[in-house]
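Methods — Computational structure assignment.
A single polypeptide chain was analysed. Its primary sequence is given first, followed by the predicted tertiary structure written as structure tokens.
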Amino acid sequence: MSDDVLELFPPGSRLDRDGTVMVGDCRLDDVAAEFGTPVIVVARDALARRVRDYLAAFRSRWPRSDVAFASKSFPCTAVQRIMVSEGLHLDVAGGGEILTALKAGADPARLVLHGNAKTDEELTIAIQSGVGLVVVDNFDDIDRLEHLVPAGRRQPCLVRVIPGVQAATHASQATGHARSKFGLLPDDARVAIARIENSPRLAMQGVHTHVGSQLLDVDQLAEAVAPIARLGTFDTYDLGGGLGVRYTYREHAPTLDQYADAMVEQARALLPADSRLIVEPGRSMVARNACTVYRVTTIKRGEVVHVAVDGGMGDNLEVALYDQRFEAGIVGRFDGAGEQCQVVGRHCESGDVLVAGVPLADPAVGDLLVVPATGAYCHTMANNYNGNRRVPVVFASGGSWRVVVRRETWDDLLRRDVD
């Protein structure tokens, strides 16, 4: 296997003597034999190290800073528990993520609630649970909160601001432009800030912004600091997330140090020195630290060599939604000469393509195929299309493994049908 391919796997991954990929010192073929395929394999220790690196990167540059993991990128209780145990806050988007965070042992005061269409039910869960910060996305949020927060209490809030930055990413991942559905334009944000400051049931803590996801230019992320700095002096400035990762051989993502340098440099220039900074990494925290193992079920050789596997858009929607490019290889045969193949899924959509135009070494029915860098937004957006059973998540560490999310059963699929 080339060094490039190893670099797409979790840090510490290696080859066994026969060339089989090992993640968390576990052979992927052994994990597949135990749990079946598809299966998402997470390098538990590498993930924990990434968490510690994030905290160190920001607190060494800006001591009053916090890292809030964007739970939506991998809202698995076991993953959230790692974040909590290592000292992170959690960014939660909706009632379900609040509940999984609490199950993971999170202090509700260390939760940051997001959402552009929060319901009364979700806000009630947040208020009753004691969620630390509610990010106000619109004026309706303010109306609902003032109605729901009990007399005598004040709910701490941030106001989400559209920074007016056009991100160099897929259109569906760009959130900082003027037409974004998320947040308020600066003039409207000023009105929202004034309303919260004058509310007996809300407490104005600061502002939030977010440029987009999978950004490979840290300067674009840092551009969002100036627009929120112009809105005034606050205790807290939440700079969002969005740092991109390397999914392919050709991509070169910024390092964590480059990201922290860019953000803190702008903060030092524009924000109060005693203010609190929050960053909300998701993809850049978890993507590289997991991979997905499939079984090859069918091969068709014609104008295109189609290598079909037993998963697809049921466990990885990133390709169909964002045109995200991944890499793939046959477990144990990465370093052989390969033929150009189209790795496709089992679902009834022509767009169910996992990897287009990837060289595979002598693929055959029954082979195990692995796709690296699937830790972000794959488990999250898993679905039951074509009666698909959502796949398990397995933690690998020190040569042993444990399942943290079981595979759905056929009974699970039928359980919600009441007639």
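Note: The longest strand covers residues 290-301.
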